Amino acid sequence: MSAPDAHSADQFVCPAAGNGLLPAELRAWMVLLAATGAVEQRLRSVVKETLDVSHDEFLILCLLAEQPRTGLRMTQVADLLGRPKTRLTYQIACLQRAGLVTRTSVCGDKRGVQVAVTDKARALLSETSVLLAGTVRQALADSMGAEQRAALRALLPDLAGEPSDN
């Protein structure tokens, strides 16, 4: 079996335009969800092996790494990731025990907690970013065939004409 066919079962089947109940935007959204799921599935093991954290903890680290060094309030992290605050508290505690985040009280707000990544976390993310980005790129390539890419281009026609950041 050739490499492109190796993951053809992973590809979300997207019906041709006009043949299904769903409009093009919803079909494209389903394609995007399937591709995201494929990326998450592939990333789980790579993230665990390279960073020794869960996928959800990895998402927290990525979000915080893109913020100023002061970090974000816990409520902002929960809102941005769409996670329950109680689950986030547990995940932050795990990351803190691993030395990857710090928690500090917000000045003037006794209930507010600010979370930021540590230098250790920044170094780990820097060391593994090429591998992790390659994993994302390969998972997308393996899970999205010509029909899936066409569905996304139909949803975002300007996307095809934009220059690549690579």
What does it look like?
The chain is mainly α. It has one domain: Orthogonal Bundle (Arc Repressor Mutant, subunit A). The chain has helices at 3-6, 24-51, 55-65, 74-81, 85-97, 119-143, 146-155; strands spanning 72-73, 101-106, 109-117. The chain has a three-stranded antiparallel beta sheet. A hairpin with a 2-residue loop joins strand 2 and strand 3. Helix 2 (24-51) packs across helix 7. The model is unreliable at 1-18 (pLDDT under 50).
Please estimate the helix content.
55-70%
**Largest beta-sheet details:** 3 strands, antiparallel
Unreliable sequence segments:
1-18
| Portion in beta strands | 5-15%
- Biggest sheet strand line-up: 1-3-2
pLDDT averaged residue by residue: 82
CATH class descriptor name: Mainly Alpha
Helix count equals: 7
Report the radius of gyration as a whole number of Å: 19 Å
Briefly note the CATH topology name.
Answer: Arc Repressor Mutant, subunit A
Query: What is the SS-derived class?
Result: mainly alpha
Q: How far from one another are the termini? A: 30 Å
Name the CATH architecture.
Orthogonal Bundle
Query: What is the number of beta strands?
Result: 3
Q: What's the overall geometry? A: globular
**Helix-strand sequence:** HHHEHHEEHH
The CATH H-level homologous superfamily: Winged helix-like DNA-binding domain superfamily/Winged helix DNA-binding domain
Tell me the count of domains: 1
Say what oligomer this is.
Answer: single chain
InterPro entries: ArsR-like_HTH (IPR011991), HTH_MarR-typ (IPR000835), MarR/SlyA-like (IPR039422), WH-like_DNA-bd_sf (IPR036388), WH_DNA-bd_sf (IPR036390)
Pfam families: MarR_2
GO molecular function: DNA-binding transcription factor activity
Protein name: HTH marR-type domain-containing protein
